[in-house]
Structure formats: C-alpha cells, structure tokens
Amino acid sequence: PQSKPASPETSRYTTHEVIIFHFSRSQISVRQEEPPFLEPLSWRFPEEPTKDEPHFPPNFELRTTVAPDSIKVICGDNSIRVEAKRDLLGIGVLVQTADAQILIFESELHGCGSQLLMSEEAFIYVFTLLYTPSPLGGSPIVRTIDFSVSIECHYRRKNDVSSDVLKPTWAPFSETNASEESLYFSLRLMTDDWQFPRSSTQFFLGDMIKFEASVEQFHHVPLRVTVDSCVATVVPNVDTVPRYAFLGNNGCMFDGQLTGSSSRFLPQSHKDKLQFELEAFRFQHGNSDVIYITCSLKATEAAANVNATNKACSFSSGWREASGIHHACSCCDTDCRAGTKSSLTVKGKQQHTLS
Which of 72, 117, 123, 311 could form a Cys-Cys staple with 251, CB 3.0–4.6 A? Predict the structure, then answer.
C-alpha cells in the first residue's frame, strides 16, 4: 500500500537518522579492514641532553685552606687573656652576637677548666676555647661549624739565678698560642729574729748565719721549696779547693753530723719558704777571710710527698726532717738518688759572699 508522504520535517529527520546510522557502520567497517597507518612511525623520543665538562682557565687554582689568624693569647703573671676576632674561621662569616656577647676572655691560670702539664723544661697550662653556632634566624641552619681551639701557656722551669731576682723574658711560640716566664727563686741572709733581710754579710766565728730560701707562687699551683746542696769556697767557683759541701744529697745538712755544730733546718711552716742556719766557720789554711756560699734550690708541687729527693734534713743525735717526715732522711748516710725515679722539679742556683 502507498503510504502517506511524510511532512518535510519528518522526512528530513528520518533521512538524516538513517544516513548517520549507515555512515557510522560503514566507517567502522572500513577502519577495521583497511588501517590508515600502513607504514611505521618515524618519531622517536629525543636523546638526553649532554653537558660539557667545565674548562678552567690556564691559571686557575682551587683555593687552599689557610689557618686563620683570628685568636691572640696573652699569658700574664697569674692570668690568661684571649682575644678572638668575630671571623673566627677566617671565611668571612662573623660570629653572631647571640653566640658571643664579648670576644675577650680572661681567666686565672688555674681556672676556667685549665689543665696543668709538666715536662722536664716547662709548666704548661692548657685551655680549650669552644664555639657552638646557633641557628640563623628562625631557620634550622648554620653557616659555621662547631670547633674547639687548644690554647697553651708555657713557663720555663729551669734557670740559673744570682742573688737578684730573675726578671722574666717573654718569647711567644711561633706555632702555638703560648708564652714563657721564669720562676722567682730567692736565697737571703736574715736577721737573728728572722723578720728582715740582713744588710751586712760580715759574721764572727760562733755566729749563726741565717738563710731563707723561697720561691714565688704567682700563677703556679702551690709550690714547695727545698735546698738540694750548698758548697762553701774561697773563690766564686764551686769546683775549686778548698771547698766544703756542708749540705747535699738532696737536702741533708751534713755540718751538724760532721762537726757537731748546731747547724739545722727550722720547722717548715710555709711550703714556699725554707729557713736554715749555719754556724760560721773559716777554712783552716785559707788566706782569705771571704767565703763564697753557693746553694742549689729546687721547687716541686706542694701536694707532692716529702721523700728521699725532696726533703730538708738536719742531724742532732739522728736525722730529722723539717716538716716531720723523718723517714725521708733515712738515706742521708747513703745515696738518696739510688733506686729513685727522677722527679719533675724546678731548679736554680744562688750564691752569697760572706766575710
């Protein structure tokens, strides 16, 4: 049967719908049977970029590390002074104000955590300067590092001294922060009451010649002074004859034992001072009434024990030690250095002329 023609709008819609349907199926069929890409793709991922090696100029030199000259040390009589630049590391980064309000440090030699070391030649006071940086601003970073600097003050231990007090000479070490100074020994003639130095060196036979040996403490730990030996001669040379060694063997007063005199050490009430008295005498065949007395003084740490090599012994019906440690004198009739280890001591010589 003949259908009724559709309206233009309906016909247009229906035709359009059919075309779309068949076109889609046709295209799907064509794509499945005849792929449009028959040849392989020529595109590839690009190669990774390469970097040229750095080329230094002919005269280029890497910077080498140089020790900064940023700390100055002054070792005084009884204290140490350390002056530190704010650029402690020498890299142009200053120590923050929050890290160090002051960069000048002063301390007594036996304070601020110092250590005392001893060698045959010197007392050495060792300090450690520590620096710990704080974070920059509110960040967790720093641009300097924790570090420590070892600082040393050296003081000579051995000197030959005359009747005058030896003045210290300062000579800083070139490679370490250190300075040197001498100990002050003294051997003086004293008045009969031991109150003042004796101005006259003239004595009569039968007089008691009174001596006071001492060592100044200053910056050092407490020290004990002893008299190792004393020799009397008619000229200022201890190796001549006639000579009389009335004190020796590391602190044994032989005169009382040899001659029956009253020569003796007095009880030692202060460790840095030692008093002794010698009965006046003259050489039998001497042509001069002048006598030279040369004594060797020694200082050790006051805390060290009185022993065979550090003592002050007198003889009066037996050996007696000035501080009461009498067994230390048991070697006075033999050799007090036999079988003992050499102790670390400070020595000096003093000479007096008597007439």
Answer: 311
Label residues 205-217 b or e (16+ Cβ within 10 Å = b).
Answer: eeeebbbbbbbbb
Q: Name the token pair of 207.
A: 């007089």
The domain of 90 spans 71-156
For residues 343 and 219, membership in a common domain is answered with: yes
- Round to whole Å and give the CA distance between 284 and 294: 19
- Residues 196, 83, single domain; the answer is no
Closest to 262 measured CA to CA, from 273, 248, 246: 246
Is pTM, for the whole model, over 0.85? no
Q: What is the CATH number of the domain that holds 150?
A: 2.60.40.3210
Q: Could you list the beta-strand ranges (E) of 25-157.
A: 71-75, 79-84, 104-108, 115-118, 122-131, 147-156
For every one of its 355 residues, what pLDDT tens digit does the chain have, with 9 covering 90 and above?
A: 555 554 444 444 444 444 444 444 444 444 445 555 566 667 776 776 676 666 656 665 655 555 556 778 888 878 888 877 766 665 555 666 555 545 788 888 888 888 888 887 788 889 888 777 776 656 665 656 677 788 888 887 765 444 444 333 333 333 333 334 467 889 999 999 999 999 889 988 888 999 999 998 766 678 899 999 999 998 888 888 888 999 999 999 999 999 989 999 999 989 999 999 999 988 877 677 888 999 999 988 888 899 999 999 999 999 999 999 999 999 999 999 875 554 445 555 555 555 5
